Amino acid sequence: MKRIEKIDPDTLTGEPRQIFEQWSPGGKPLNIVLIYFRNIELNRNWSYMATHLFWKNSMSDRQREIVVLRTSWQCASDYEFIQHVRIAREGRLLNDEEMRDLTNKTPQQSWPEHERALISASDELVASHGISDGTWTILARHFDDKQLMDIVATAGGYTLNSMATSSFGVDIEDTMKREDGLSPSQNGPAFRFAEPDYSIAAPRAARISRGNLADLKDKAAAQVAAYRGGDDRAALLETLARYPSIVKNWMPVVSYIDHHNTLDPKERLIISLRTAVQCHSEAEFTDRARVARERGLSDVDIDGLSKASPQLSGSDRHALLIEAVDELVDEKVVGDDLWARMRNHFSDEELMDVVFAVATQLMISWMQNALGVQPGQETLPKARLA
What we know:
globular, mainly alpha, AhpD-like
């Protein structure tokens, strides 16, 4: 179902036009680009991270596509899965038997140990918002710190795209088709292959040692300086500082989501806190709760956002935002009923920002969890969701 109208490319000028053309192979714009650019500032900032994940990823192209295909299948995203079937075929990165095997609950092919661990990591992140010690141990044997960060970022980034394309009604390209066995909407499982295990979401120790933010240079340093209004996500940023490329390319969309999108500051914090709770990220909840208090949210409201039946003083918009977080984290899409109700309260640009805010916050929570970033003194309430 088409929910967001495509933009007229002739209205784009300057940097947005350049980015639009970059994502238009052979001069023909992809459907995802035509719809994402309905919210120009959102897509301009997200494009830096998208470029990093696809073109500057420290994993090999084959490794990247294993993570993308497994993740987008679990998220039941026709657009992302079918698009990357094409990419894998054209690049001869995976054969059809391998791609079909990635749609099985338990892969049957003889995958090498490091590729099987990529599949497990994708499953665990989507289902449980973290990576188990056993899977991490195998990954760490085969991948360096930059690649480990890219594994989590790639799963998170393509979960974001899956949420967005499904929620915005982005259809597959005219040149593509839904093949039997390779189409999530026709053949796909529930997005989880296993019961979630939230105990893996918060490792007891850091898995990657912290770097020094003072060592960042040029664009990476500028992005952090522009973003930080205090100690926002200090421990995560110090961990990511070991990988300047991901810092400079991820920070624009994080900064946009946290400080510059079309939602008001309280609404942004409602999304951040609720998503951190749903993703069982103690480190992220701790940081966002501190920021929320500094910006005027009461302890009652912060605690209310941690409950299975949220209690929050505020408007209808606030209640709808909580519903949207819960539905996106659980189902990876905003369903028809909720979308119709949200349309009465949010513009198209705001609706796009809601989906991207939840998905970006989920990606941040996954990074906090998987990298073992440790929380501060305040921990996630005991009433967190089961």
